[in-house]
Amino acid sequence: MTYGHSFLVYAPTFCPLDHWRRVLPGVHLYETSASLPTPCQGNTLWICSDAPDWQGVSQNWSRSGSRVVVLTREPRSDEMNLALASGARAYVPALANSSVFRQVAESVGSGGLWLPENLLGNLLQLVSNALDHAANSRVEADLSVLTTREKEVARQASKGASNRRIAETLGITERTVKEHMGSVFRKLGVRDRMQLMLFVTGQPGVGGGDDVHQA
């Protein structure tokens, strides 16, 4: 589940330690960043946004080649943007279950990003809107390899719609949406929703970017 050594920094004002020990077996817990070991490549730092100077610590560790995950009491777009700007590879609800923590560890361990579904959708909508205003850079997206339903799912997802919203809009189940998404990724040669959005909106040079995962 974890890659290299795993460290978690928290603040005394918010410290559900038993929960973190359950979802991150073997993690080393630190009440402050002052006693942390020297950051190095291959380690993972989980840092709570309640911790003092969490952004500075995140920057320092990410620059060293360590993977940084920011834990938050309540996900917010503005804080997520700060986390990403500080070099974090993931922004995660601090009390998420073990399945989510496992997904996060696997995503950042393979070089990807992990963001909460609703905030990822907002981010994709912002990027999509920005690209719409830059029409001169767009080319026609070739979706001919997709089935009619897959095209519908791809277009909805590229606008930032969650699996649940796509399912409600198209009158299908979330499981079916996930199956269509997997097929879309394979047929178009994209690895994540960000690349899918760039492909569908006609941006050149899609491929080779970070995997962006959601809940």
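(the above was protein one; protein two follows)
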Amino acid sequence: MKKTFPIIIALITLSLMGIIYIQVSWLRNLAFLREEQLKEKLSAVIQQVGEELVVQRSDAFNNLGRMPGMKFPGDGYDIYKQFSVTNRFTIYEIREKLQKAFIRNNLKDTEFEFAVASDNVFGHYELKSPRFMDMASDTVHNLKAWYPLVASSGSILESLAPDEVFVIVVPDVKSYVLQSLGWMIAGSILFTLIIITAFFLTIRTLLRQKKLGDMKNDFINNMTHELKTPLATISLAVDALKNEKVLGNPEKLGYFTNMIKDENKRMNKHVESILQAAQMERQEVQLNLRELHVHDIIRNVLTNLQLQIEEKQGKVDVQLSATNDLMDADEVHLTNLINNLVDNALKYSKDDSFQLHISTKNMGKFIRITVEDHGIGMNKETLARVFEKFYRAHTGNVHNVKGFGLGLSYVKTMVEAHGGKVKADSVIGKGSTFTVDLPLKK
């Protein structure tokens, strides 16, 4: 698992990057296609309106020539100017024709500006919409199309009508394309978010499995060591009991018998810890609640651990200041809870001395139990995971501190089962403080 895990993460990451790249490429190509479609439709619009303007200009000239007694006004220049598009149509009329053409070509809501130039040089515009000049100068963001308004070959106006150019500008083409792709972009973003979420959940699951695998291996290693030690001691004691010198010495016989008994109790304690963890996992813990005095439980725990405290040459400062210590609790679990906190302080105490401060005080409807030691302390990573099941803070050697990493997890579970809260504070080299708030009897 350790070797394949980075490979799996790398493959998933590459797959995600590939999917995102395909999405971006697809959207880019689609945007380019829409822009080309817009150019084609704009060309169709300007051609349709341009041809209509040229035809209507020719019809007007023909009608003028057919009227009885009608003469052309003025000289040739006047005729030339009179039948230009800029003179025959107003801005409103041309805009109306363009709007209809845009609708026919499925460009209903498209903004546009237009103008008619008097010659093929796009500098002199006889007719133009209000914002045309502002739009025409920007050819990067705006789309421009033009159509020559030239009379058809062989018509009457071929030499009389001026050569004009019809120009249309569609502003901010990129925004138009993005708006037209709105649903597709939203769907693509949603799909990408789903892929990223799935990627995140997959990575989190893999990390959790790796973490559980490491915890399982540590637990098996610790359990093997914890059970092998008493078994080895019992085996040596049994071999010693077979010695004739031991059998004839009642003092040595009692010593080895007590050794076997103590090691047997030690193994039973380990088995009980594992069974308690299994019960908590299945949520099968049943609390036998009854009225208890917390101070009595604390005193009993300290009495039972007195020999271990003396072996450490430690000092215990007890300040039971709570005026009300009566609560409904399970005596066994409450005793184990406090025992685990004190035992944890003993395990992680410094080699040269052991100092423990236990205090209580009332906090409204709760009694606060504080267990403070001056041991090796914990770093931030350990402090964040100290209540996790099977997690153990190592001090260099895997087995230099005995246990399965179940004690503080059990403490948290039992405190919450009684309706309380527990928190831990620690400073490396200065010690740790565990604070337990338990509800008092109503």
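Reviewer note on protein two: Residues 65-78, 396-400 have pLDDT under 50 and may be disordered.
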